[in-house]
Amino acid sequence: MSIDTTAAKAIRTTKRVIWPIYAPFDNYWRAPWARRKFARTPWPTNAFDAHSREMPRVGVVVANYNTANLISQLIFSLHRIVHSPKVAQIVVVDNASTDGSIHILEALHNANLIHLIKNREQQYHGKGLNQGVSWLARTYDAHDPNHSIDYVLILDSDVILLRDDIIDDSIAFIRESGSDIIGQLQTPVIKLRHNPYLVHPSTLFLDAGRIWKHPIPPFYDHGSPAEPMEKYADRKGRIISSFPYAEQNYVIHLGGGTLSSIAASDETDNRYYGWAVDHSEPHFLGGYSGMHGAQGPRPQSAPNTVDRDRARANYERFFEIFQNEVPVLDAEHIVNACLRDHPNYTFGQ
Prior knowledge:
two-stranded antiparallel sheet, 14 helices, 7-stranded mixed β-sheet, 14% strand, alpha/beta, single chain
């Protein structure tokens, strides 16, 4: 009897820890405890059809933890480089930062430059993203087009946007390809059952009305938080397409932002501390070249074609601009820099 009990406990533990990553997600997501752990507010059933609206609106969601410098650069790039009227809301979820991030984010919130969600305790990346998208779902008003969101852009806090056409081009591509999720092709390549490959969660553009609802799971807490969502969406016939965010200079993903802060602060009680120590160096995320739609050609084993030297050069140029605009990294300087109308910068292709 005791052996059977021990085995049963081991099986339950395996389901809770390992299954979210490796098992068929339809069975996993039906478990009541899993639904509670990764709770979210689903997208309203009476939402507008995102693909048919003449003036679509985009909500941006970012989770932050101890990346004061990087999150400031990201928000600066959203306001001074992208500067798109289609970005209706920027939601930042702070996971109990201790590096001064919260003071900058509170000032940006008070200036109506972002909407800030503050967690008193570390909730980790996946749950933070779920909070942000769920807030957009709760505040959606189907009776007022000015208080509704059609697409959601998920960004890592160590991403910088370099082109003012990123929103327009993302909307055009997701509509033309009939996709439900688009993003930078993930490397190493992970193949799916129906769609060719996973896309990277650092820059993820979603048709929220098609993705943010049961039975497709939300973001999870592991190294690739969008993987369960993408794999389950793939099983349910949703279309996932790669878009050349890195190759065509729409973004720079420095990589290792939050991990660097965890490793540097010796947070041994953080569940990702060991991983952070080994993966905290900036890597300038690359991928595969070309714009590959759901029905378009896909490389079988294409070499990485992102020019990392160009990415570094672009970041150095951006950082010089940022330092000129924000000579002191504090709340007042960040707010003032984001509110300035001119000049608006862009880096082109």
